[in-house]
Design goal:
The protein is α+β, with helices and mostly antiparallel strands. The chain is about 25% helix and about 40% strand.
Amino acid sequence: MKTMTALATLSLLLALGCSRKGAGGPPRVPVTVARAEQRAVPFEIPATGTAEPRQTVSVQSQVTGVLTRVAFREGDEVEVGQVLFQIDPRPFQAALEQAQAMLARDQAQAQSAVLDAQRYADLVKQDYVTQSDYEAKQAAAAALQAAVRADSAAVANAELNFEWARIRAPIAGRTGRLLVREGNLVRANAPDPLVIINQIHPILVRFAVPERALADIQRYRKNRLPVLVSPSKEDTTFTSGLLTFVDNSVDTTTGTVLLKAEFANPDGVLWPGEFLSVRLQLYVEEKAVVVPAQAVMAGQQGTYVFVLNQDGTARSQPVTVERAAGSYAVIAQGVAPGDEVVTDGQLRLVSGAPVEVKGVAEPAREVEADK
């Protein structure tokens, strides 16, 4: 009898335990959530670009001579007109003085010949000299005046050569590798430059976009379109510039259009030849509904997100994604501002599953950068 009672008691306890386990329901799925927000989101065209100097000058000598001084260091910033090189000026100084002396001599002779011609003009009227004598004096005066003009040109040329012996920077910019040293003989218009100067304040970034974007670019170009660049796609530090050039034709090989943007680059952050991540901003959509991009899932029926219900469950909600914007997805329809969507843990969810919120996703900041 006691054994039967014990068995009955054990059966009752097991039954109660099973009923309590069933009453608890399925376990809750831990998830991270974020709220759908309404915010201003720029419409951007991503691209890959390359920085290039606004101007590049290969500095060459216009005269031949021995280099006596280099007045800068490799990599220096130089200003317009700054002296870079000095070629031995003595041969050019001597040539200039010789040309000036010849000019002075011929000017004196020309002045005397003109006076003689004037005297002969009076004498020929009085028949003291013949007409041919007078014309000879006129011809001599004209020849000497022509010699004076030739001497003046020779002086000007000698002055230029003397000035060119001092080579100055034609533009402001940063110098590159020095290709000659003091004591070298430099030749006029040699194929190899003495140094190359790149203007990097401001600097240009060239990039290409698909031809399908050309119509939108032309539509909004009157607004001076901003361009943002960073060293890599993962970098959140952007430098801002303005679109300055749209090529006048489409590259039929690649189906793209070449664009250029100008950046002030006061600190030299951008460097010629550097590859950059580029974002061309066409306009700003002021009231876009956005969710973190990781909340959007793709299935056989299209894109969807999991939205939290008030009873602590999650439901699958189809959405229409208008476009990507950095770490956000812009939603055309499917969710409203304030809806809580699952950003992590949704792979273990089915519609109607209970969830336990373990955290709230940090809001992305890329969308608001440099607006």
